[in-house]
Design goal:
Radius of gyration: 15 Å
Helix content: over 70%
Strand content: under 5%
Largest sheet: none
Family: Belongs to the drug/metabolite transporter (DMT) superfamily. Small multidrug resistance (SMR) (TC 2.A.7.1) family.
Number of domains: 1
Subcellular location: Cell membrane
Shape: flat
Distance between the termini: 11 Å
Membrane topology: Multi-pass membrane protein
Number of strands: 0
Organism: Endosaccharibacter trunci
Order of helices and strands: HHHH
Keywords: Cell membrane, Membrane, Transmembrane, Transmembrane helix, Transport
């Protein structure tokens, strides 16, 4: 259950970050409201996750998966491109998240 909450937090934060870009500096009301609501939901779900998942593990997964998702959707929605070193770095971040999840004893809920 805690990792479903974390997944919800990551997805809400991803929507919020993409909406922040679309808000054009909070000059567009719809994306601005979606951004604020998304961050509120994300932090609420993250706070619930932290009841059972160590903060370092939760934050590593949160930020790593968030970077990957925002980069992917930034490409799809805004046409933003990443060069080879950026893609390699994102690959390393994803590999780190997988190591935490699959190999670390700290990766599981307590």
């Amino acid at each position: 259950m805690p990792f479903l909450l974390l997944l919800g937090a990551i997805l809400a934060e991803t929507v919020a970050t993409l909406s922040l870009k679309a808000s054009n500096g909070f000059s567009r009301p719809g994306p601005s409201a979606l951004s604020v609501a998304g961050y509120a939901i994300a932090f609420f779900l993250l706070s619930l996750t932290l009841r059972t998942v160590p903060v370092g593990i939760a934050y590593a997964i949160w930020s790593g998966v968030g970077i990957v998702l925002v980069s992917l959707f930034g490409r799809l929605l805004f046409g933003q491109t990443l060069d080879a070193p950026a893609l390699a770095g994102i690959g390393l971040i994803l590999a780190g998240v997988l190591v935490i999840q699959l190999l670390s004893r700290g990766g599981g809920a307590h």
